[in-house]
Amino acid sequence: MEQYERIGRELIHKGTIIDYYQDTIKIPNGNIAKWDFIKHKGAAAVVAVKEDGRLLMVKQYRNALDRETLEIPAGGLDGADEPTDIAAARELEEETGYKAGKLELLISLRTTVAFCNEKIDVYVATDLKPAKQHLDEDEFLDVMSYDIDDLIQMIYDCKIQDGKTVASLLAYKNKYCK
Question: What is the pTM (predicted TM-score) of this model?
Fold first, then answer.
């Protein structure tokens, strides 16, 4: 494989969720290219399975799409070194009002490898116990439960398009619903 060499990285904007950089890269033919890079601290998500087998989902407004989406519970790490299982447990409780008796890693995702380093570890949460939902001040969402087959059909009907949710539900169905 031919060599790429980063010769520079300039912070263009520091945001609350992401930092935007412009990288200067020496590409294999010797030319210099400018590439965008989004640095993300990482995230965790949860496929939360109720005792009856139904999965907890959250419906929330997403500014980037200017509409509501149906997603698995998820959220950013408090810091790049926070263990993702801790973040997953926190986000599950914050968003749904449930605590997990058991968390098991399902998959790790890299969301947009062309320009972003975001990694999301997705866990399966079982043995759910009611707790207290405590949303962020700017967070408004509805919690609903669905049968896995209904959710899979929503993927194929293009009603669920969020990448982490699509990948996680398909992985869950493949691993746990034989």
Answer: 0.94
